[in-house]
Amino acid sequence: MRSKAPARTSGQGWLLRRLFAATLAAGSLSAVSAPAQVALKPDTPNLLFWSPDQQARWYPAMETVYQTRTIAAGDRIHALPLAGGEIDPVFTHAGKTWTVDAYMEAYKVSGLLVIRDGKVLLERYGLGRRPSDRWTSFSVAKSVTATLVGAAIQDGYIKSLKTPVTQILPELKGSAYDGVTLRQLLMMSSGVRWNEDYGDPNSDVAKGPTEGLKLAQGKPGLNPVVAYMRTLPRAHPPGTMFNYNTGETDLVGILLARAVGKGIAEYASEKIWKPYGMEADAAWVTDPGGLERGGCCISMTLRDYGRVGQFVLDEGVVDGRPILPPGWAREATTKQIDNGQAGYGYFWWMQPNGAYQATGIFGQSITTFREDRIIIVVNSAWPKSGGPDLREGRVALVTALRSAAAAR
Question: 266-320 pLDDT, tens per residue?
């Protein structure tokens, strides 16, 4: 039975939602100049500082805390049959021997899923979560947004990745975005100056929400994100330098909605959720104006996270019909620019172990080993947004799970 569509709720405070979005992208717990998110209930604490109990209660129910739009599922469900026999590796990390259950308890994992060749090798839940419960994605949503850009190109709404940003968002003409392409936005390499230093009250992430709201006042139709972004100067030639830029992930969401002429939750339903066969409706957090955030917070079931990974691994082909342009999925999940680590694609992170990964703070990830056709989903409620200790623990788990899955 499908999950009921989350009710769409109301809210106010574009300013704080923008600041929340930027804070999520940087994975920082630093203090910010204003509450990070406007909640439906005034006594809701800042999401970045939720207690473990609040994480466990609200990560599965974001639509009860913030405004969302529904990504509607359809009548069909893409089967994920059991492989016949569960993997259960034991591994060593930080001088200790770990079982999967011990890892899940220590790292506050609510859901763990391993798929190989479309079959489930491991599916476990924690923190009181049930299989029908959704869980928020944080920045895993960015990878979904990039996938929808591919669908919009296939549908002819966007001509190509070479399309100038100003062609779809003419409000940016005359700014540092002149000459910047959609591809460069997806690579986070526009060359436009952006500062995400939360210790600096004059950084873009700190002052951008306030300034954008002021700049958009009295200008109907001007999105506050666009209003602020178009004031920024150029720092590098387009396409030459990776710079993680939260504002630009929102620009891509705005650009996509403008191009397709509808909300991107509706478009996600049309291009992925219904045709590919997600099992339940999803909830996409929006700003108070109802615009889904291109960079954050889709709530979906654990198996639907797996289906997102499988959809991309299948290169967006459904019943022989391409949803994405030929080669798009592989290009998006292959290194396009040096980021000082293993590389970055189109809102997908490359990993040193050869995988590509959609990643969100507090322990959300879809890790795919293309050649092995293995997908590993982890949903968590880490006690902090990130850090080497948490990431290294997840790498150890994923490595063990991959080895066990590949041996089957």
Answer: 999 999 999 999 999 999 988 645 678 898 899 999 999 999 999 999 999 999 9
State pTM to two decimals.
Answer: 0.89
Residue the block writes with tokens 């005359």: 174
Q: Pick from 124, 127, 145: which is nearest to 303 by CA?
A: 124
> Strands 356-360 and 364-369: what pairing?
antiparallel
Q: Please list the residues that pair with 360 across neighbouring strands.
A: 364
Is residue 16 within 8 Å of 209, Cβ to Cβ? yes
What would the DSSP string read from start to end of 305-365? Answer: HHHHHHHHHTTTEETTEESS-TTHHHHHTS--B--SSS-B-SS-EE-TTS-EEEEETTTEE
What is the amino acid identity at position 92?
T
**Per-residue pLDDT tens over the stretch 348-393:** 999 999 999 999 989 999 999 999 999 999 999 999 989 999 999 9
Each domain of the chain, given as residue ranges in start order, spans 14-78+114-406
399 Cβ contact list (under 8 Å, min separation 6)? 91, 353
Any idea how long the chain is?
Answer: 408
Specify which residues 350 forms β-bridges with: 356
* Class for the domain spanning 14-78+114-406: alpha beta
Helix/strand/coil for 157: coil
Confidence band (pLDDT; 50, 70, 90) for 39?
Answer: low
Closest of 135, 115, 103 to residue 360, by C-alpha: 135
